[in-house]
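Q: What would this chain look like folded?
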Amino acid sequence: MSRLCMILGGLALALLALAPALADPRSESEAVWSVADRCAREAARLFPDFTPQGNIARENYRRACLRANNDPAPNGSATTTIR
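A: My prediction, written as structure tokens:
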């Protein structure tokens, strides 16, 4: 009986060790994308004008929002080139 308990205990420990490796990686990716979408929507709501200054303000807000949520964002602030 004790041998059976040891085998079952070992199997349980093995399954617990493998559980993080078997987790669905898409859920983490979907979380990152949802934060990016939320930041973009909020930036568009706060800066609705599509002038060069509005575009810069919207992009700077989006980058700051991504950084605040520990998501990857381009370094620095957005700039525009006037042609």
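Residues 30-83 form one domain.
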